[in-house]
């Protein structure tokens, strides 16, 4: 069995570098999968993104906050790929949290200030009847691809990784948004 420190390191690599997750939601029109661009937050492990309020996954989250998702990377050394699956609950970011979370999202997603300025949307688009919302999911369970076992028997299995092994990663030094960790 793969040692926990190795599972934690693989999880950290995925969380910090994948940048996209596919979310599985369910609502009045049935199940739906949607890929979103996220930034991670810690303690507890959360993923932050924004979407149009009218998007099917956004409407589904309003209807049922229970979701699942997957994150993967290819082109890695060794096996060449790695992936994780998770279950979570998701919710829209509250109006009183908007300044803090939007700042974190844009700073992490676009470290270069000039690029960030080009991508940053007016916060009015995320308030009241605005067309967008930031969403925050809190991971409840986390599984990694069992690469070691696959190399033995080619069975595609997962390893349950305890969240406390991967949630203590601090924000990068110099981040002005330390409060949202």
Account of the 3D structure:
A hairpin with a 4-residue loop joins strand 3 (39-41) and strand 4 (46-52). The longest helix is centred in the first third of the chain and has 14 residues, at 4-17. The chain has helices at residues 4-17, 56-63, 98-109, 113-119, 147-153, and strands at residues 20-27, 30-37, 39-41, 46-52, 66-74, 81-92, 132-145, 158-161. Strands 1, 2, 3, 4, 5, 6, 7 and 8 form an 8-stranded antiparallel beta sheet that branches. It has 5 helices and 8 strands; from the N terminus they run αββββαββααβαβ. The radius of gyration is 17 Å and the shape is globular. Residues 169-181 have low confidence and may be disordered. It starts with a helix and ends in a 20-residue tail after the last strand. By secondary structure, the chain is an alpha+beta fold.
Highlighted features:
single chain; 181 residues; alpha+beta; 5 helices; 8 strands; disordered C terminus
Record the SSE blueprint:
Elements: H1 4-17, E1 20-27, E2 30-37, E3 39-41, E4 46-52, H2 56-63, E5 66-74, E6 81-92, H3 98-109, H4 113-119, E7 132-145, H5 147-153, E8 158-161
Antiparallel strand pairs: 1-2, 1-5, 3-4, 4-7, 5-6, 6-7, 7-8
**What Rg is obtained from the alpha carbons, in whole angstroms?**
17 Å
| Strand count | 8
Supply the helix-strand structural class: alpha+beta
Largest sheet: 8 strands, antiparallel
Mean pLDDT: 91
Report the span from N to C terminus: 31 Å
Order of helices and strands: HEEEEHEEHHEHE
Number of helical runs?
A: 5
Query: Which regions contain 5 or more consecutive residues with pLDDT less than 50?
Result: 169-181
Q: Beta-sheet strand percentage?
A: 35-45%
Shape: globular
Helix fraction, binned, reads 25-40%
């Amino acid at each position: 069995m793969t040692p926990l420190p190795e599972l934690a390191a693989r999880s950290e690599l995925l969380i910090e570098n994948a940048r996209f997750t596919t979310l599985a939601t369910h609502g009045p029109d049935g199940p739906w999968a949607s890929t979103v661009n996220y930034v991670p937050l810690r303690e507890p492990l959360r993923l932050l993104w924004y979407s149009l309020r009218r998007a099917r996954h956004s409407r589904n989250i309003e209807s049922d906050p229970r979701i699942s998702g997957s994150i993967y990377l290819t082109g890695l050394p060794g096996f060449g790929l790695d992936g994780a699956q998770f279950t979570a609950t998701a919710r829209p970011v509250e109006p009183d949290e908007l300044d803090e979370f939007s700042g974190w999202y844009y700073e992490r997603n676009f470290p270069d200030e000039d690029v960030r300025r080009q991508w940053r949307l007016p916060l009015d688009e995320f308030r009241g009847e605005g067309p967008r919302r930031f969403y925050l999911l809190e991971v409840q369970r986390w599984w990694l691809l069992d690469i070691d076992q696959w190399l033995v028997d080619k069975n595609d299995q997962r390893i349950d990784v305890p969240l406390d092994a991967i949630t203590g990663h601090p924000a990068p030094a110099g981040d002005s948004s330390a409060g949202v960790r």
